[in-house]
Design goal:
alpha+beta, binds zinc ion
């Protein structure tokens, strides 16, 4: 199964540090596994048309939540999907990752997040998606915020990593920093039993988790 192969890739420290991913059509068929630059798997996703979404993994040592590049990628995806389908919010991007965790079963904390755009404006999407001068700046900001959050974090049981609450806080801040309205995004956290928690955001980026019944 392809998702499993991405999780394994995210744990394999012997492999070149690159993101891996694959694209999924609305009918469930999917592409081969693609390999991209670190945190820029999205550059390998040149043809999104015809696809509903995709999954990628961040490599070992990578940040286990969606990056600014991933957010831009979702917006492109939603744009393409919205051109040919009624509902942009059906477009998605998924992130699978794994990190060492002494307090977790098998010594690993696996995370599975899905991101959707649930806002309204197509023009707004297009403007944001074409801001190439921002790309490097946003990447640096994100890495700096992550390091800060790790220092502030009290999750000592799991080492120098963030828990879900900290990840989602960092993500809410990222949306604000990017000049987006956090209310336009739905983050979904999927646990190992496939239970989904929907995480909405207030306008100032505060996460509002709601477990699905
Ligand atoms: Zn990514």
């Amino acid at each position: 199964m392809k998702k499993q192969s991405l999780v394994e890739a995210s744990e394999n420290t012997n492999e070149n540090v690159k993101d891996k991913g694959f694209k999924i059509k609305a009918n469930g068929t999917n592409s081969d596994v693609l390999v991209g630059e670190e945190d820029h798997i999205n550059t390998g996703f040149t043809t999104l048309e015809g696809y509903q979404g995709d999954y990628h993994s961040h490599p070992p040592g990578g940040i286990k939540i969606f990056s600014p590049g991933d957010v831009r990628h979702l917006l492109f995806n939603a744009l393409f999907y919205g051109n040919t389908n009624a509902n942009k919010s059906e477009a998605f991007t998924g992130l699978l990752s794994s990190q060492p965790c002494s307090a977790c079963p098998n010594g690993k904390l696996r995370t599975h997040y899905v991101l959707r755009y649930i806002g309204a404006s197509g023009n707004y999407l297009a403007n944001l998606a074409y801001a190439p001068n921002k790309v490097e700046e946003q990447k640096k900001w994100f890495e700096k915020q992550y390091s800060r959050q790790v220092i502030l974090s009290n999750s000592s049981a799991t080492g120098d990593i963030l828990n879900e609450e900290e990840h989602t806080k960092l993500f809410g801040k990222t949306l604000v920093y990017m000049g987006l309205n956090p209310k336009d995004f739905l983050l979904q956290s999927v646990d190992s039993n496939n239970n989904i928690t929907n995480i909405n955001f207030s306008e100032n980026g505060t996460p509002i988790p709601t477990p699905c019944p």
